[in-house]
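INFO worker-7 received task bundle
INFO bundle size: 2
INFO processing item 0
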Amino acid sequence: MTDACSLGYKYGMTKTEAIKMFGTATKLARAIGICPQAVYKWPEVLTPLLNDRVMAAMMRTVHARERDLTGTE
């Protein structure tokens, strides 16, 4: 999984980049609470709303991983 901080926040993220951040479309879908089939219906260049959902999910994932490693909130 790619760290969101190393990618930076950008608009115009592609569906391929979003999937790559999570490793698979299934993992991406699970992180934002949708079914994997929905990810495949996204446009290749994400809308600002989809972009925000992907980045928010990545930040939650990174925060949870850091919390697990340090044992703090």
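INFO item 0 finished
INFO processing item 1
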Amino acid sequence: IELTIIEEELSGFSSLPFFKVLKDDIAYDVRTMGLGELSLFYFYWLIEHVRQHEGNKILLIEEPESFLPPSSQEKLADILAKFIAETGVSCIISSHSEHILKRIPRENILIFRKEQSKIKCKQASAKHEFLNVLGLTAPKIGILLFEDSAAKLFFKALIKHSKEFVVDSFYFHISGSESGIVGDLKRIPSQIDSFRILGIFDGDCRGKQLGLGEKSIYTFLPSEYSPEELLIDFIEGVSPNELSLLFNKSEEAINYAIEETFGSDPHDYFEILSKLLDLDYNFIMTSMFDNWINSTTNNQSVEEFITEFGVKIK
């Protein structure tokens, strides 16, 4: 491969690379080569061009996926990542390609959207729905084991506040009980290659002797209570007016439902409440978990859980 730099009378360019390829008995150059091959040669030249300059640098690349098949896009993304790590160059890429974006941390992806007459910028990690705009599905990195559906819904609400993980990063399995999680963790390897199997116990399991070996990976949901007990305690501090707005039901209906569920077993409490209010159980639980998580008094508990979960799952 021969590289010639043209530097005379190029409007808008300080220099321009001209590539010539000789392979076996075949010779061709930029005038006839495919645009995908040309773009890869150009990226190579651009990276080497940037290396030669001192000082702070920003590399701007627009839609590097153009003309490239998926495998080449992934390799190009790897080469750019290696170059950035080695040189400390800041790089801004505009792209629509899942193959370019899929291994970039979600907190480093910004989505620009036109809303009415304005252009708005959102972090991809801020809401899972933003990933769908890009057609991105997070690679699966593990299986999470829960005691019941309430624990699973609590985790899904919590993970929305992570900048590193999204709900779609995991498979979910309900083991049925505390002992069910213990049994599953004993039967299944904690790690298969880079794929993790992690048990997530309710908060009321803290301090218990679970009988798990050192190789088992597990953590606990926030607080010292089960998710249902946590919400029952929380709901007592929320006014009927707030619950009325949250569930779009009258205060009279809210008061009646709360009175009727008083004293119920915590695991049955929200099933009964959902029937009395004629609302979906998942909707009630998710709404209440979101409110608990967004309460300023619980910020530290949420951050501690997300941090500990991140350490365990890696």
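INFO item 1 finished
INFO post-check item 1: The chain has twelve helices and twelve strands.
INFO post-check item 1: The mean pLDDT is 89.
INFO worker-7 idle
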